[in-house]
């Protein structure tokens, strides 16, 4: 990675894009911030972003090329997949329209790979947020909170197996296990909504356990391209886990991002919820 050249950051929602941009600037990179209209967080205003809608793909690439950037990071949440009416726009968009429409077909993984392909055909190198800000990656072992007990470790193991199956089907990146039972899996609604659903299940007695019990497990998909859509947890994840009466959160070390890391660890310690970095990938068989 060219440490001196400018880099473009195309930012969706959440606070993570601002943290990645700040890390890039601290490393000496010039950053061109492009905020997706209707998605990007207000925290990006500190970086004087160019705000572009889905119908301004031509202007997006013009902005990147005019700045001399050869690398781009795609980071942040996108709550709605754009439809045809939202992407009809400038001439540059219309010229690329067949490739854009092709990218909108398929599951999340195929969508992201095709979107990266559009950038690569423009002569740009797509790099992962973790390459700019490796300090955001989860480390191994207990990062905050109490140590998990044997029952917690059993739930972690079960949750990992569930997430592997979800990832293989391109469904989600997270599951919740209580004891020997998987009580919730992540779908299109995302992790936060799954945690709210789990809270409701505990409150209405559909999931019965004495006191706090269970673990949220979050991992990258088995064959995930780490340049985009790395799973993320942050302080709000911890608070929702507390509301769902969970004991802890287990994330894949080196393949999950910790947003607002200091705050996240502090909230874990305050609420008594463990944050555990685990090895979740299946080991290759010995030849």
Polypeptide structure, described:
It comes from Pseudovibrio exalbescens. Pfam families: LpxI_C, LpxI_N. GO terms for molecular function: nucleotidyltransferase activity. InterPro entries: LpxI, LpxI_C, LpxI_C_sf, LpxI_N. The structure is a single chain. With about 290 residues, the protein is α/β, with parallel strands linked by helices. The chain starts with 6 loop residues before the first strand and ends in a 9-residue tail after the last strand. The strands form 3 sheets. A 6-stranded mixed β-sheet has the order 6-13-11-9-7-8. A 5-stranded parallel β-sheet has the order 3-2-1-4-5, with helices on both faces. Strands 10-12 form a two-stranded parallel ribbon. Strand 7 and strand 8 form a beta hairpin. The model has no long low-confidence stretch (mean pLDDT about 85). It has 2 domains: about 5-130, Rossmann fold (3-Layer(aba) Sandwich); about 135-280, LpxI C-terminal catalytic domain (Cytidine Deaminase, domain 2), CATH 3.40.140.80. It has helices spanning about 15-25, 55-65, 85, 90-95, 95-105, 110-120, 130, 150-170, 190-205, 235-245, 260-270, and strands spanning about 5-10, 30-35, 50, 70-75, 125, 140-145, 175-180, 180-185, 215-220, 230-235, 250, 255-260, 275-280. The longest helix has 19 residues, at about 150-170.
